[in-house]
Amino acid sequence: MRFIIVTFISLLMSLSCKNEAEKQMDEDHGATPKYVSFGKKITADDAVWAKSMLSYYHTLKVGDTMNSKFKATVSDVCQVKGCWMKLTLDDKSEVMVRFKDYGFFVPKTIKNREVIVSGLAYIDELTVEDQRHYAEDAGQPSDEISRITEPKHIFAFEADGVLLKH
Fold it and tell me: Which of 2, 38, 39, 68 has a CA between 20 and 30 Å from the CA of residue 166?
């Protein structure tokens, strides 16, 4: 009987060691993505994909807001100090992300990188002046900037936290 108990305990211990080794191997091989955090500490849990977020944006009107967390690819970043970024929602749509109270910034070199943002989604009307300011920050040529002549409605997001995928 003692032999059976010792064998059973040994078997359990070896299985638990194997699970720990497998977890370590997964971490070493990047099975769980690693993120660098900016702003408020957030987790990657429950983030929806950009295309799903686009369908939520289509239900909003100017003045509506919605707390959200989503995952997307950075299409543009402020080249002055990283104080805003644009995220791709699909082939035709993007969202302008600003940071709550300008309390944090992101690196200027994250174009084409994956991020998760948490905060407030809304529809915004950008004035001509604001559009030109953002175009200057993005480094667009002056002839393109001068062609901005009308306000426009955009998908907007005020992020209180950002995770940048390593």
Answer: 68
164 closest CA partner among 103, 73, 99, 93: 73
Q: Considering Cα of 4, then 9, then 15, then 18, what sign does the dihedral take?
A: negative
Those residues whose C-beta lies under 8 Å from the C-beta of residue 95, and which sit 6 or more positions away, are 53, 57, 72, 86, 87, 89, 121, 154, 155, 156, 157
Tell me what the pLDDT averaged over the chain comes to.
Answer: 86
Question: Does residue 124 register a pLDDT over 70?
Answer: yes
> Cα separation of 45 and 41, whole Å?
12
- Tens-place pLDDT, residues 127-150: 999 999 989 988 899 999 999 999
Q: With beta carbons less than 8 A apart as the criterion, state whether 111 and 76 touch.
A: yes
Give the CA dihedral 21, 19, 26, 53, nearest 10 degrees: -160
